């Protein structure tokens, strides 16, 4: 009995730390409990690199290339709008009315830009993390990616952060510091590090009422910061799933030559705090993987289809590149003979307030559909049919992925 008592006492610091972390998460996320990370795979790994039945190996946040999933969903930029984010997931049947994972074995890729333009950035991060863990238990996989706004915020560039966005991080700092104080009550736990260490107490030209939010945002998101470490180190910068290549902005030949896995590792190492304060060079500038717009112009003639063709030819099995970053006012569309698929529909209230749409690819790319909440599809689909084969893009806010398929089969409208 005495031995059991001693074991319980030895475990107390770890139990207290876990309780405090759960308390902080619950307070910051708006009331979410993060499920435990699965300790065993929901199914055995695939026996070949490209299984024919659509079965995938267990989710791996550090993996760059995945075999063809039985159902693949792509979701564009979310920009701090929690409700629109949930609408996008519900549109694809990925979450139920209680925001629990209902997507089964689906693989989902969210192409980045959770940050900026809205006030629910942390809440979205927590929702995505919860769904990742729930999906893994169901044999599914949710992959999150870095957009240019993730890179900007880790570097301390808050040009597009909103007042509510700063307030959300200010509240995070309050709860996080309270949790650290609670941990100091236990002699068996090390004293927590001051999250504001090295951050100036004032900035030139910054008003006093904005200072706390800015300092909190820096503390949370700088390389090695608590929020960066907890969430963003699991993001990928480039993903290949079956014959689809995902990237926030776009890839150029020099990016592929540099190495997709290499870029994912280096960006992750930078965010974790082991590679200095500045992002890798291929994440900065107009030709960066998270900033590129060569394949995203609304007018097809302005897009560099020849470079895209070359890039895809250098990635084994690649058939298309799926990108966010550039708002498509007419909705999800494809150009360059459907090799460039643009899925940022500006759904966030702070970034266009568009109607949510997601891309669905079933099986070995035999069926590609746009799942949309836009009622104009029903109204205009017959009159639009004749133009989709030649245009490859939308007219008057409706359309499909060019010649990938016919409209009634391609587009599914959900309320």
TrEMBL record:
Membrane-spanning intervals of the chain: none
Protein name: Calcineurin-like phosphoesterase domain-containing protein
Record domain Calcineurin-like phosphoesterase: where: 71-191
InterPro entries for the chain: Calcineurin-like_PHP (IPR004843), Metallo-depent_PP-like (IPR029052), MPP_Shelphs (IPR041787)
Classification via Pfam families: Metallophos
Region (Disordered): 35-63
Gene Ontology molecular function: any one: hydrolase activity
